[in-house]
Amino acid sequence: MSLPSTILGYPRIGRKRELKKAVESYWAGGIDADGLAAAEAELRRANLARLVELGLGADDSSLPENSSLYDQVLDVTHLLGAAPERFAGREGLDLYFALARGDSSVAPLEMTKWFDTNYHYLVPEIGPDTPISFANRDVVDRFTQAKGWGYTTRPVIVGPVTYLVLSKPAGENGSPLDRLDDVVAAYGELLTALAEAGAQWVQFDEPALVSDNLTVPRTEIAHLVEQVWTGLAARENRPNILLAAPYGDSSAVFPALVRTGVEAIGVDLDRGTLPTPESLANEGVSPSDLAGRTLVAGVVDGRNIWATDLSAAAEKLEAARGLGADVLVGTATSLQHVPHDTALETWDDPALNENLHAWLAFADQKVGEVVLLDRGIRTGLDSIRAELDANAAVLAQRAATEGVSVPAVRERVAALTGADRTRGDYAERRAAQAARLGLPDLPTTSIGSFPQTAEVRQARAAHARGDIDNAAYEARMKEEIERTIRLQEELDVDVLVHGEAERNDMVQYFAELFDGFAVTKHGWVQSYGSRCTRPSILWGDVAKSREMTVPWWSYAQSLTDRPVKGMLTGPVTIIAWSFVRRDIPLSEVADQIALALRDEVAALEEAGAAVIQVDEPALRELLPLDQSRHADYLAWSVGAFNAATAGVEPATQIHTHLCYSEFGQIIDAIAALDADVTSIEAARSRMEVLPDLKEHGFAQGVGPGVWDIHSPRVPSVEELTSLLELAVESVDPDLLWVNPDCGLKTRGYEETIASLTNLVAAAKAVRATI
Ligand SMILES: Nc1nc2c(c(=O)[nH]1)N[C@@H](CNc1ccc(C(=O)N[C@@H](CCC(=O)N[C@@H](CCC(=O)N[C@@H](CCC(=O)O)C(=O)O)C(=O)O)C(=O)O)cc1)CN2
Ligand code: MET
Ligand SMILES: [Zn+2]
């Protein structure tokens, strides 16, 4: 049975964030396990019904089944029963959520970025003694349940090689890949179970194939994928297999995919290309090897929101046919990275509203594009000529729209010089800042946000609905800022923050104020677990034309004699966490944002800020998966940060903050940011990054996080002290700062107060010993 055109995955959070609400209600005790299962099933059913309504077939396996209560990598850990020993005694949902979030007595799995996206997965811990079997039948049960509703779905599962390559070793010895045979055996049993349940097709994603940034070289990954899938494809009694290589360029590993013998191969033709027939021939692959097999050509971008250039997509489909396979239309990745439906949005400005509805394609519109292109390849492009023409007209109209290209912005970027990106001698800055700030050794600070309480969010929602006016909203936020300042003074923190109460999100807040962006009301995308963001839409040239952070900062500073940090989000992070235009290079977009931020940095300095933090938590996230593009990326990303920050006086202290990643590969770039102080996530890895920084000659201020803020657990004074003692081994005490791993917006006040109390006590204890 052949596979029809399809999408590699669909958003699972729900049009109204039903999944978030159900899961959080379960955690809070509002519903029980049955209630959660019912809500989850209802959402899954609604999504399937919607996809059929949009034109996918109900019973031809074109419906991907990629639902998850929390994370697709965690789902494989659960499928394999591969819980680390510290979780012993837990089972079912308790185990599943303990792995994700920890509980009162156990720390959760680590969380990190999924390839170059703003989605985070839970890192499996796999060692020689980790139990691995076909331990959980959720995938099969979901298939069977959907079958009962009248849908033949195609289960989507992270492949065994990617799963293990993304794992970290449990304990001291061995590599997770040592357990590949056991994992493959479990997948084999899963295949049999799915066949028995009636599944026609299963999709396995092996995105590790497209990345050079993993601990295992790409050639080795390709070799393992070939070996594993050749073996699994040779099994009797299994569904057909779609093996997908999403998130980047798989042309170099394509021959390995062909040699596995699986029925269908999925490739990303948005970020990647196909090999030419000649280069395939050189690898011994001929069109006859692909005859009768399916190539799911991912011509529709799964992670950005611009309407596809349909003619360009049709050309790619046509070219793909030259390889000898049956070519079908697909998405480049799962659509889990885009919101559900543009139809949920109305933008206030009528012209912008009309434009964005024409320019954008969220998940449901992308399904429409797949269905349309599918018709085009089946019945000839002439049958969709009207749609192709309309699409071309929209693209031309967009290019000509006011605001897309603003001469003043273009000229200012073009005029940027090396001097604009250079701050001058660090030793001189250090002395001037020390004299101005007069801080103790090991000064304490926090990363910016304080708990975003339900009350604060409700006030913002009420303001947005018009239930409270600007003055009332402002008063409410000022109340919150005052409480945050007083609290930090009581706790005796040295460098304060205003707490970011007024920000819905550290990127969206700025996008709402800069020119060139639009934001959404319902465009939620899962970031991790139940946490979502509404990525902003960067459609035009960017500039600052409004008051932004200064009034809030000034108010906070007026309440205290201690320095309060000005707090901004850097250009790379704004790009990484928004949906960004693709008609000009990212380097140029970054410089536009940098100059807009430079204006805000200057305004804060002018208002009297002695310390200004520009966060770049996504610096590592945007590192290209393809090694050959690293140098170029690091040059423009660092250059943009420098352009944003280098305008200040030597006595003004610039901080930056990095988190959520492994930083080993980008240490030189971190140094090149030339921030006076860099706070960096380090608690879970026990300060691992510090010796690295030292080795690279980094000798500016650094605040390795000592409190892992991803869990509600309160670190003890002893624990914090021991981390600081480790830190002073690598860092000069008057360059060492004491701070948490990241902002506190997802924490509650109770654990925040307890943890900060201990953090200040630990700093004082270690200070006394040096
Ligand atoms: N964009 C982005 N990416 C990031 C991060 C980040 O902070 N921002 N941090 C890292 C980890 N990712 C994270 C992503 C989201 C959240 C987070 O806290 N998200 C919140 C939503 C934040 C937000 O947009 N809040 C809005 C809207 C809140 C809301 O849901 N309001 C209710 C009404 C109010 C209520 O009753 O609570 C509604 O609209 O229905 C606001 O405060 O204004 C959530 O899912 O709950 C945290 C970390 C990496 N990537
Ligand atoms: C994800 S990095 C967060 C930085 C931001 N200033 C905060 O504290 O929330
Ligand atoms: Zn952070």
From TrEMBL:
GO process annotations (BP): methionine biosynthetic process; methylation
Cobalamin-independent methionine synthase MetE C-terminal/archaeal domain mapped to chain residues: 442-764
Top enzyme category: transferase
Cofactor: how and how many bound: Binds 2 Zn(2+) ions per subunit.
Domain named Cobalamin-independent methionine synthase MetE N-terminal: residues: 5-320
Binding site for L-homocysteine: 447-449, 615
Binding-site residues for L-methionine, renumbered to this chain: 447-449, 500, 615
Residues that hold Zn(2+) according to the record: 657, 659, 681, 742
Sequence positions that bind 5-methyltetrahydropteroyltri-L-glutamate: 20, 118, 531-532, 577
SUPFAM superfamilies given in the database record: UROD/MetE-like
The EC number(s) this enzyme carries: 2.1.1.14
Molecular-function annotations in GO: 5-methyltetrahydropteroyltriglutamate-homocysteine S-methyltransferase activity; zinc ion binding
Pathway annotation from the record: Amino-acid biosynthesis; L-methionine biosynthesis via de novo pathway; L-methionine from L-homocysteine (MetE route): step 1/1
Pfam entry (one): Meth_synt_1
Active site residues according to the UniProt entry: 710 (proton donor)
Co-factor requirement: Zn(2+)
Family recorded in the similarity comment: Belongs to the vitamin-B12 independent methionine synthase family.
Functional summary from the UniProt entry: Catalyzes the transfer of a methyl group from 5-methyltetrahydrofolate to homocysteine resulting in methionine formation.
PANTHER family reported in the protein's UniProt record: 5-METHYLTETRAHYDROPTEROYLTRIGLUTAMATE--HOMOCYSTEINE METHYLTRANSFERASE
NCBIfam families: PRK05222.1 (NF003556)
Protein name according to UniProt: 5-methyltetrahydropteroyltriglutamate--homocysteine S-methyltransferase
Organism field: Flaviflexus salsibiostraticola
